[in-house]
């Protein structure tokens, strides 16, 4: 891409990042630091909190499956603005109710819209970048999630003493509206061609999602979904339950995750360029596994902080490296592969809160449930070693 187009590249990356900030942090992950406060307010119990998280993850799965069906470029142009608008509307409606039943329904719809946007927006941008010779910059879109975690932490902690119950959703909604509008206005101007589906010899490209090259990547990504979701959902709540943990660490544990996530897309984007995406993915899984093990082996302040640091700095790297590897393996069906990976990710992360609930009902501890995440990451690391190396 020439220098005259560089501002356009920057604007596209920023627009995609802001859209992910809106749906994936202000819409979704802000629930993690909110949950201990909602429990303290008496609005929810910890088991209800796990139920609501499960509804949200189910919605995310449904959204990813819908995005898998609506994977063509013209479909993305039609569906993406509606999904983005519905996501912001759900955040507003959450300011209006403390009902567990209504909140569960809204978090389900939030998950559906989030799943669609989280697949379609980066896939749409990746296709545009690939056609301008800048596919290696695609991971920078996920900087929006890192920035969003910092923003969401501030939006929860700063007004914590003068908001309660459903009022705690207001800051997220107020910020979401202008960011969503500006982000979509930039993306709607992009000219993105549909992926080429025939070879230079005129032979139709295979429509299979799974083959000997892509299957290890899918199996590895399944482990990533369950491995990261427990600390990303319950780390502050776990910190509030561990003995000899300062009360301030409950909020600070999420801040550590947020701060670690902030540079993660740039770091793993760079690591993929230097080491190759396949090798970088293996390193990523190993560090993420160490993070989950930290809170199990060292169940104190240091373990909680190390978990937040390592998981926060790796989980987005897993996403961007896997998405880019998938398109390298099957460049003719990039958006469809992206949707399939997110759908699989959703299935396994949906199982995390559900299994946590069963474990708690059986008398287990939240800390004990984190062993499930560690085992899932061992699975992911194993299959990552079988993913073929690609340039």
From TrEMBL:
Ranges annotated as spanning the membrane: 12-32, 52-70, 79-96, 108-128, 140-160, 218-237, 249-268, 288-316, 368-387
Top-level lineage group: Bacteria
Localisation: Membrane
PROSITE patterns: SUGAR_TRANSPORT_2 (PS00217)
Pfam family, one: MFS_4
Signal peptide range: none
Keywords: Membrane, Transmembrane, Transmembrane helix
Membrane topology: Multi-pass membrane protein
Protein name per its UniProtKB record: YbfB/YjiJ family MFS transporter
Source species of the chain: Thiopseudomonas acetoxidans
């Amino acid at each position: 891409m020439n220098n005259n187009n560089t501002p356009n590249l920057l604007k596209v990356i920023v627009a995609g990042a802001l859209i992910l900030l809106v749906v994936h942090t202000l819409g979704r992950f802000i629930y993690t630091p909110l949950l201990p406060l909602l429990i303290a307010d008496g609005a929810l119990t910890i088991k209800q909190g796990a139920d609501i998280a499960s509804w949200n993850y189910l919605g995310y799965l449904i959204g990813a499956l819908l995005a898998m069906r609506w994977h063509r470029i013209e479909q993305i142009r039609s569906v993406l603005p509606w999904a983005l608008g519905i996501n912001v509307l759900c955040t507003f409606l959450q300011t209006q109710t403390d009902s567990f039943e209504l909140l569960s329904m809204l978090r389900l719809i939030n998950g559906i819209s989030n799943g669609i946007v989280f697949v379609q927006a980066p896939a749409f941008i990746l296709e545009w970048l690939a056609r301008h010779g800048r596919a290696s910059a695609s991971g920078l879109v996920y900087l929006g999630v890192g920035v969003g975690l910092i923003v969401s932490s501030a939006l929860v902690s700063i007004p914590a003493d003068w908001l309660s119950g459903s009022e705690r959703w207001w800051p997220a909604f107020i910020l979401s509206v202008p960011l969503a509008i500006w982000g979509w206005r930039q993306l709607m101007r992009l000219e993105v061609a549909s992926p080429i589906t025939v070879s230079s010899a005129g032979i139709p490209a295979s429509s299979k999602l799974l083959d000997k090259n892509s299957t290890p990547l899918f199996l590895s990504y399944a482990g990533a979904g369950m491995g990261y979701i427990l600390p990303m959902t319950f780390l502050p709540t776990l910190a509030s339950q561990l003995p000899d943990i300062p009360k301030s660490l409950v909020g600070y544990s999420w801040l550590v995750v947020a701060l670690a996530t902030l540079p993660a897309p740039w770091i793993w984007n760079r690591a993929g360029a230097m080491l190759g995406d396949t090798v970088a993915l293996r390193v990523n899984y190993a560090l993420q596994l160490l993070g989950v093990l930290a809170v199990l082996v060292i169940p104190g302040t240091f373990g909680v902080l190390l978990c937040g640091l390592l998981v926060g700095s790796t989980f987005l790297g897993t996403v961007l490296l896997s998405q880019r590897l998938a398109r390298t393996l099957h460049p003719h069906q990039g958006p469809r592969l992206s949707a399939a990976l997110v759908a699989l990710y959703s299935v396994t992360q949906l199982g995390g809160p559900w299994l946590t609930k069963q474990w708690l009902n059986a008398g287990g501890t939240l800390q004990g449930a984190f062993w499930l995440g560690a085992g899932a990451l061992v699975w992911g690391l194993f299959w990552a070693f079988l993913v073929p190396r690609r340039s």
